[in-house]
Amino acid sequence: MNLILRRKSLFKDVSCPLFRSSLVPVFAFGENDLFKQVNNPPGSLLRRVQTRFKDTMGFAPPIFYGRGIFNYSMGILPHRRPVHVIVGKPIAVEKIENPTSDQMQQVYDLYEKSLTELFDTHKTEYGLDASTQLIIT
Which residues contact 101 (CB under 8 A, 6 or more apart)? Predict the structure, then answer.
């Protein structure tokens, strides 16, 4: 399972003088089952458009669908699937006025380790295979 964390946007507020909270690792099992994505194999027109958009804007817009209000085959509402949200132990972060990149990396590494441990502890309880790994990029 792949998880993308943007280091700059997620951890830049750690140094903010008003930052008074701990970081809490949270993982939701089943979230990927709420919507389906239109098939876009490599080489297809949709994939080429998404890739060009990603190269220009920095993200690729997914073309997804869920269920409808009166028909359950297609719509914009999420499918009725269970989502299990697991909350980990809070990570205390000390307030630093001007953190160095090494200090920011330390916080990021601790958060990543905690999130991976949370995933590994609970993955088999919620239908994932024991060999499934969380890949954070």
Answer: none
Q: Which tokens in the block code for residue 60?
A: 């690729």
Query: Where are the strands (E) in the chain, listed by range?
Result: 2-3, 26-29, 36-37, 64-65, 84-87, 135-136
- What is the value of pTM for the model shown? 0.77
Encode pLDDT of 95-107 as tens digits: 777 778 788 888 8
Contact 24, 88 (CB under 8 A): yes
Distance, in Å, from the CA atom of 37 to the CA atom of 65, rounded to the nearest integer, reads 6
Taking 50 as the pLDDT cut, the residues of the chain under it are 17-18
Tokens of 70: 């009166």
| Residues 6 or more apart whose Cβ sits within 8 Å of residue 91 | 22, 23, 24, 25, 107, 110, 111, 114
Q: How far is CA 98 from CA 26, 41, 130, in A?
A: 27, 45, 41
